[in-house]
Amino acid sequence: MTGLIITGGSIDCAFAGAFLKDKTFDMVIAVDGGLAAVKQLDIRPDAIVGDFDTVKGELLEEYGQIEGITFEQHQPEKDETDTELALRTAMEAGVSDMVILGATGGRLDHSIGNIHLLYACLQKGVKASIVDEKNRLYILDQGKTYRSSETWGKYISFLPLTEEVHGITLKGFKYPLTNWDIRIGTSLCISNELEAETGTITFRDGVLICVESHD
Fold first, then answer.
1. In this predicted structure, which of 61-65, 115-119, 170-174, 176-180 has the lowest mean pLDDT?
2. Torsion of CA 184, 121, 29, 158, to 10 degrees
3. Which Pfam families does UniProt cross-reference here (predicted)?
4. Orientation angle between helical segments 108-123 and 82-92, nearest 10 degrees
5. Which domain holds residue 105?
6. CA 134 to CA 214: how far, in whole Å?
7. Domain shared by 41 and 110, yes or no
8. Which site among 129, 148, 181, 204 is 20 to 30 Å from 6 CA-CA?
9. For the chain, first and last CA: distance in Å?
């Protein structure tokens, strides 16, 4: 089951419209202020989740008139962000593959927190990625093969999410590595590029943040 979450960070609606064209999702969730982008993109959400502190009241009222949309309102004083609550709602509904828009470009604490939420998805066996006009970001706990025709852009970066990641081997990349260990606090694996049509990363243990990006 696939899901789309549109949350309240910065969203380039021209990019989002082009990205979402011809894509379908089994469940769409608007998160608080992200409802404004949902309206601009002319998307019908299945659920609207949040404490509703950043969304305009008249917009909530408008969507409240549409039959079949679930409203999940939370108190502002809570332990989770609205985005975490939306992810929980999606996973409880059975979503196993989700895309998140609006998770970057706003407050830095929320952006970093949203990256950590991807790790929570990984732990539950849920595939999740954050996308914006320049980046596609996801978490790896095992190797992956990259194809130049499928990557988000020219650059592929790997950053450790765990304290250490052991035995990284990069093949088919401009800057290859063989059985290399990296720790949090290094920028060694930022801005690599595929040198061939395909490239692979393997590693023994640890967890990596992967960012595919372009200028």
1. 61-65
2. 30
3. TPK_B1_binding, TPK_catalytic
4. 20
5. 2-133
6. 6
7. yes
8. 148
9. 32
Tokens of 61: 């009222």
CA dihedral (89, 91, 92, 93) in degrees, to 10, reads 90
155 pLDDT tier (thresholds 50, 70, 90): very high
Query: What would the DSSP string read from start to end of 26-75?
Result: SEEEEEGGGHHHHHHTT---SEEEE--SSS-HHHHHHHHTSTTPEEEE--
Report the pLDDT value the prediction gives residue 198, as an integer from 0 to 100. Answer: 97
Once rounded to an integer, what is the mean pLDDT over residues 166-175?
98
Using an 8 Å Cβ cutoff, are 202 and 167 in contact? yes
Separation CA 163–CA 165 (nearest Å): 7
Distance (Å, whole) CA 8 – CA 86: 12
For 32-60, write each residue's pLDDT tens digit: 989 999 999 999 999 999 988 888 888 88
Examine the pLDDT at 23 and tell me if it is beyond 90.
yes
Summarize pLDDT for 115-141 with one digit per residue, the tens.
999 999 999 999 999 999 999 999 999
The CATH number assigned to the domain holding 45 equals 3.40.50.10240
Helix ranges, the chain (H): 13-20, 35-40, 57-64, 82-92, 108-123
Q: Are strands 155-160 and 164-171 parallel, antiparallel or unpaired?
A: unpaired
